[in-house]
Amino acid sequence: MEKLVANNYGSFDIVMTHGKGSTMYDESGKKYIDFLAGIAVNSLGTNYEPLVKAISEQAAKEIHVCNYFLSDIGVKYVKKLLKATGFERAYFGNSGAEGNEAAFKLARKYGYLNGGEKRRVIYTLESSFHGRTLATLTATGQEKFHPACFAPYAEHFKTIKANDWEAIKTAFDDTTAALMIECVQGEGGVNLIDPQWAKAAAKAARDAGAIVMADEVQTGFGRTGTLLASEQLGFEPEVVSFAKGVAGGLPMGGILFRGKAAEVFVAGDHQSTFGGNPLACAAANVVLDTLTAPGFLDSVKEKGEYMRKTIAGWKSPATGEVRGKGLMIGVDIVDGKSAVELEKKLLANGLLTSTAGKNTLRIVPPLNISMEEIDEGLSILKKTLENF
């Protein structure tokens, strides 16, 4: 397959064919419990009937309308989205990197309008991850994502250490356009951000004249047990980027913005050919309706807490700290063991997971995973750890 499709992902030699809920099957008929959800993309699992129905019905009406016009489902969705999130405006693209690119462009223009050419600096956090384009790679606070072969990188990006109280005392000044906080550092190791620090950092940035942004590409749309993870941190960003689970598996991303950021973009500033197409909006509408149904997000919190407590309770010598929010869980692998090797053994035993950070097993199942599937997956994880 590598001669047909570039293996930029280091993909496993497995071909998936179908699934139901949080259970997947490959071409040999082997069954897998899905603790991965396409890396937090398949937020409602596989073959979720309301999602399939909405996509099918929309495909029969119209799949794409160019952005010279609006679509009826797009208007319906954006009104519902803004009401649910409390933002004033939205921009739609196709991926998390596109969402963050839009956020960075908005921040740069905001800085220019409110300080001229000197207000260009965008701060992100060490250990963050923001995407694979040149600008979003630059913004990513991990040196391993900055190889020399892709240089030169974009200018005027700086990082500070998350939860470092001293750093925020001197970081921001009249050259700062924005601070972006990744609400849980997924790729960095499922690292949590202290809410009090986030609020203090946001205040310091705003006092310096900057806007504050949240990268919710992985944490948004129910992943952490609230519609947006920034709700739990309380720093009320002017801009939020999103993608992954927003449309249940269809490519969709973008930003939400409000307040000082609401009127920055004008026609021509930033565009996307496929952004906000009717098919993606139809899927996203089902996802939003599901997430906002009474009790759904509470169930995400409860399932996540159950999984974290269960894993921690095993006291496996191969595992260290178990942390996370909602159904975004990180398990540190210790005692000289490798998270990558554990991931491979789990795959062979029928459990889909991924890795993150220096040596962390990442668990991000569909948000509507059943308790039966959770217990089946945890059983595979426990048995694998016992022989690891």
List the main descriptive attributes of the protein structure presented here.
388 residues, alpha/beta, 7-stranded mixed β-sheet, 4-stranded mixed β-sheet, 12 helices, 17 strands
Structure description:
By secondary structure, the chain is α/β, with parallel strands linked by helices. The chain is 35% helix and 19% strand. It is built from 12 helices and 17 strands. Strands 4-12-11-10-7-5-6 form a 7-stranded mixed sheet. Strands 1-2-3-15 form a 4-stranded mixed sheet. Strand 5, helix 5 (134-139) and strand 6 form a beta-alpha-beta unit. Helix 2 packs antiparallel against helix 9 (278-291). The longest helix is centred in the last third of the chain and has 19 residues, at 296-314. The protein is globular and about 60 Å long.
